[in-house]
Amino acid sequence: MKQEPIKRIVLGITGGIAAYKAAELLRLLMKQGVEVQVAMTEAACHFITPTTMQALSGKPVLTTQWDNTANGMAHISLSRSADAIVIAPATADFIAKLAHGLADDLLSSMCLARLCPLLVAPAMNREMWQNAATRRNIAQLLADGVRVLGPDCGVQACGEEGMGRMREAEDLARDVLALLRNAPLSPTPLPASGARELNNVKILITAGPTYEAIDAVRGITNRSSGKMGYAIAQAALEQGAEVTLVSGPTALAKPQGAQGVDVTSAAQMFEAVKQRADDCDIFIGVAAVADYRVAQPSEQKIKKSAAPLTLELVPNPDILAYVAALPDPPFCVGFAAESENLAKYAEQKRCVKNVPLLVGNLAQQAIGSDENELVLFDDSGSHVLPRADKLTLARLLMQHIKQRYEGASQ
Known about the structure:
Layout: E1 8-13, H1 20-31, E2 35-40, H2 50-57, H3 74-81, E3 84-90, H4 92-100, H5 106-113, E4 118-122, H6 126-130, H7 132-143, E5 147-148, E6 152-155, E7 161-165, H8 169-180, E8 202-207, E9 212-213, E10 219-220, H9 227-238, E11 242-247, E12 259-262, H10 266-276, E13 282-285, E14 292-294, E15 313-315, H11 319-324, E16 331-338, H12 342-353, E17 357-362, H13 363-366, E18 371-378, E19 381-389, H14 390-409
Parallel strand pairs: 1-2, 1-3, 3-4, 4-5, 8-11, 8-13, 11-12, 13-16, 16-17
Antiparallel strand pairs: 6-7, 9-10, 14-15, 17-18, 18-19
């Protein structure tokens, strides 16, 4: 049997507290047969030592462009022999360097001189991630074809919580391996001017599940985590939109910069949307709204007995259909989670509710997962967004929404 050639990457480490995760990423990649050459910035050496990375990789760690490796041309020779360069963590400072083409050290020079794909895993404080300058820089990297992996939302080393946490090593390793195996990974590049493409555009998003009370302690809900809706809110914020996020009960932190509206039931979500739909330009209904509610929920706990319990269920209002039927509706995007016959049922839903764009996915692959695969249905047919993390998909989706929205506005 023909043996596949060894894949080689350069793992670049910059000066952030998340540098410790690079050691595990290195270990996981080598376990899969990837040859890894580590290059570190001077700042990175303050967080994790070159000795550690050399012991793990079995190769001398490059820290300066003035050493004698490859006759002082390491930034050329290494980038030519690598199948990819991965920067993890990528600090705000280093991302700014990449966006502006600066090359004042070995790692930045290597990125500028490369002929191979470049992947960056951002890691920084939530306010640094939300800063307009960082948004512009990320948009420029995407426009230049750089793959941006993450970040995640969570507790950060500074004690704050929000978007900016570097993705876990296992997730990054999976994405790097997918790239090396030519699996779909890369996001659609943004236009070069894409930092604030949706300035002054108001977007109303629903996310998460709803909870319909049976009695004082019991209720009907679903397994939606809200991750997709929150990721779309983050992607919209990155493009400069004014985002209002109407969310059912989730364990997620609201993206910084979004106006949050917390609701519980479908009726509460409906009222929140009705109050705001006339003032939005784009409506994205991501929430998994319960189709039915109990007709007469009990104010007290229903005591358990041996007798069967019959509940009368009545339909909940159709929020997406309501917004789409407004006299002057916003650009409407719906979601359809199906367990079978996705194309058939999603297109039927799009036509019945008269929305220009409907996003379909298989519920068993999406609910609770950090990854998904989406199929976009519009007047021109269907478009597949290959399986990826939800933030990457959200960024791709927002690009499609932007294009359709601009076309509808002309």
